[in-house]
Amino acid sequence: MIDDETRYRAVDSRDSRFDGVFFTAVRTTGIYCRPSCPAVTPKRVNCSFYPTAAAAQGAGYRACRRCRPDSVPGSPEWNHRADLVGRAMRLIGDGIVDREGVAGLAGRLGYSARQLQRQLTAELGAGPLALARAQRAQAARLLLQTTELPVTEVAFAAGFASVRQFNDTVREVYDRTPSGLRTEVAAGRRGGGTPGTISLRLAYRGALDSDHLIDFLALRAVPGVEEVVPGTPPGVRTYRRTLALPYGHAIAEVDGLGPADPPTRGWLDCRLVLTDLRDLTTAVHRLRALFDLDADPDTVDGQLGADPAFAPLVVARPGIRSPGHVDPHELAVRAVLGQQITVTAARTLAGRLAEQYGVPLPEPSGGLRLLFPDAAALAQAAPEHLAMPESRRRALRGLCAALAEGAVRLDGGVDREQAAAELLALPGIGPWTVGYLRMRALADPDVFLPTDAGVRHGLQRLGLPGDPKSAERAAPAWAPWRSYAVHRLWVAAAPPGGAADGAVPVPVPVPVPVPGGRAVGGGVPGGRTSNVDSTMEEKA
């Protein structure tokens, strides 16, 4: 928690670490800014502070045209908070209000619309409609300034119910007509040089180790669904993948930082090709989650760097993130596929299932040809297409059936503890798989995996005991950022110039059949498949 005096000091020093954490409104100008706005610092007496852009807009302020406060990273609170407000903000970011209305949002959260309105307004200064409206305004500006779409099409693509509502909102938020907002960007800069492509920047705060992110994703890239290719200029690598979205599908490209780019540059270049522009907000939200771009690396690295064992790693590679995922159901399937096998083997198996059950794109794009199969399709997969032990085959089918039926939910609005309990109740799903899904699908920043082979080897490389009990005793010092500690340990475990799949060559326990058709192995309690269960899946 920070008070107004601390906020003003951040504004006075133009501290970009607070961009998206709060917004500064200036009474004498009627505008609101990000803390790092380069304009002359206003007098303290004229400043008010708001937790969201929607709250500032609701108070009658318009966005600064110089610092574009609507394009800052999201507050890191929405990454790690598990309460109602945090869960609601993650769902609003994914576009649930635009698709299902406030009633749909409230139903997903298990509250009445009135209770939800009251809690969001009390803490954020704006209700769900106002928060969604601010998000629509940002999407509208992005479409106006990066495409040549007619203004009417932009209005509906951004999620507005009418052109009049769109015009009124743009004027109120930006003090410009839609046409005026468009003319602020030269025509030659719109469209990214490729027809149908939306080019944008994904903002982040602090340092970002994009090599870690690209390495992590490249190691696990499912053929036909994902790929990492050389980018432009030389030395840049580009992550590409297909996205299944509510209204259609997309192809997304995100460039890593180049050799000459500082880790604190502040943005990653992104390009999106959407079959339905209404999916823009959702696609951007999911890519931000995949790259963990709303994190606060200064706080995370400060906590981990206080441990002498981690301090050299933090100094050498600041800004390591904890990648999320664009589709929690896909991630859940891939986590089960990876139980007790190497990363390479899991990727190959996922690729075969994608070939058999995925949805082909109308036209391939480079190496991208497929959308990853949904849970309903895989729940009915033929045995000959599931080249794995019978116990894991049952686990995969049971998980997919539960996801398809809604018996288990993994979206950003679920209660993490409830989701974990529901997963553990499924045959073949053990603690490792649940922890991995909490870390990546549910954006939990404080997950530790003491039985993971990569974690054990990373601890040993740091001169610490690697056995699970010793790891459990050491881990509380890294709270509430243990997910980030896991990633740093995986990086430490990878040998310099090591194996292509990053796998640590350790023996894998063989599951032993028990009555009831389950399997036990690796000392994991609960009679489920060992989640060393997936310790061979995560080693890089």
Q: Describe it for me?
A:
The chain has about 550 residues and is an alpha+beta fold. It folds into four domains: about 5-70, DNA Methylphosphotriester Repair Domain (3-Layer(aba) Sandwich); about 80-190, Arc Repressor Mutant, subunit A; about 190-290, TATA-Binding Protein; about 330-535, Orthogonal Bundle (Endonuclease III, domain 1). Helix content is about 40%, strand content about 10%. The protein contains 23 helices and 13 strands. Strands 5-9-8-7-6 form a five-stranded antiparallel beta sheet. Helix 7 packs antiparallel against helix 8 and helix 19 (about 415-425) runs antiparallel to helix 20 (about 430-440). The model is unreliable at about 500-540 (pLDDT under 50).
By CATH reckoning, the class of the largest domain would read Mainly Alpha
Low-confidence parts, pLDDT < 50 over ≥5 residues?
498-540
The coarse overall form would be: globular
Largest sheet: 5 strands, antiparallel
- Spatial sequence of strands, sheet with the most strands: 5-9-8-7-6
**CATH-defined topology of the largest domain:** Endonuclease III, domain 1
Task: Tell me the fraction of residues in β-strands, as a range.
Answer: 5-15%
In CATH, what is the homologous superfamily of the largest domain?
Hypothetical protein, domain 2
* Structural class by SSE content: alpha+beta
Question: How would you state the average pLDDT, rounded?
Answer: 87
Number of domains: 4
Radius of gyration: 23 Å
Examine the secondary-structure arrangement and name the CATH architecture of the largest domain: Orthogonal Bundle
Number of strands: 13
Percent of residues in helices comes to 40-55%
